[in-house]
Design brief:
Helix content: over 70%
Number of helices: 3
Structural class: mainly alpha
Number of strands: 0
Length: about 100
Amino acid sequence: MAPPGLQLGRSSLVAQTFMKGLIRGVFYGAIGVTLFFLCLVPLIVKHIRMKQAKKIAAMKAEKSPKIRAHQGLETSLRPKEPGKSRVTPSPEQRILEEQDKQADK
């Protein structure tokens, strides 16, 4: 058996080491959490601003007659029958058509 003085020294050394580790753990944990939120906050702010910008754009689109007219033009330019597509002639066909027109004259 060890003398009682050495056992008290050991237990106080263990308690001291435990307290140092606990304080370091809390300190490093606080630094880690702070860094995490410092990196996360700009992403959250960006997300919130994007949502607000979309809402504002939607509100402006509802209020502005110019944007409504522009949207009306876009929809009127679309083909009325979705199944049919417009086929543009190839450059060779255009040249042949022009030559036929000139020959007819």
